[in-house]
Design goal:
- By secondary structure, this protein is mainly α.
- The chain folds into two domains: about 50 residues, no CATH class; about 110 residues, no CATH class.
- About 65% of the residues lie in helices and about 5% in strands.
- It has five helices and two strands; from the N terminus they run ββααααα.
- The chain has a two-stranded antiparallel ribbon with strand order 1-2.
- Helix 2 packs antiparallel against helix 3 and helix 4 packs antiparallel against helix 5.
- The model has no long low-confidence stretch (mean pLDDT about 90).
- Bound molecules: zinc ion (2 copies).
């Protein structure tokens, strides 16, 4: 009959256990173990894993907000300019331009951020899209050009989720 050496949890020296974290191999008791799809992990390893999902630096939030803001202002201005010459066809063109602009903004942001990521960074970048379109929206509101607001609405409706999903990698 094989003899088992009594082993204890690394974090709770009085808790008997033979369970090991499947990443760092530390002995962990049932209180420390977190059940993952791949097996049991200690809390430290879970924390480390969370950090890798949040690699954004403080300046990334400024890049995210300012860069998408400026790009969005540009896209929003271009859509307005085209709407004056496109007339009725703008109903079809606006969705195409908004989608194209969102894809382009997503590509530029990927370059600028070099793969650094965090949920708040994606939210800041998406907020930039709305902020960038605001000057154009306010301009049309002040000048009473409510018809032109439709294209801005379509632009935001398409671009906001598209840019968010483009950056975060989530797909609907
Ligand atoms: Zn571990
Ligand atoms: Zn423990």
């Amino acid at each position: 009959m094989p003899t088992y050496e009594t082993t204890y949890c690394t974090y709770h020296p009085t808790a008997e256990t033979n369970l090991r974290c499947n990443r760092c191999e530390e002995l962990i008791c049932s209180k420390c173990a977190v059940h993952m799809p791949t097996g049991y992990r200690c809390k430290d390893c879970i924390k480390d894993q969370k950090k890798t999902f949040n690699t954004a630096e403080w300046y990334d939030y400024i890049i995210g907000l300012v860069a998408t803001g400026l790009l969005s202002l540009l896209a929003s201005g271009i859509i307005s300019a085209i709407s004056f010459i496109a007339g009725f066809f703008m109903w079809f063109i606006s969705i195409g331009i908004a989608g194209g602009a969102a894809t382009l903004i997503g590509k530029i942001m990927h370059r600028l951020l070099r793969g650094r990521r965090s949920k708040n960074l994606f939210l800041a970048s998406t907020a930039g899209i709305v902020l960038g379109a605001l000057p154009v929206i306010i301009f049309f509101l002040l000048t009473g050009n409510y018809y032109s607001l439709i294209w801005q609405g379509i632009y935001l409706f398409v671009a906001v989720p598209a840019v968010f999903y483009n950056l975060s990698g989530f797909r609907l």
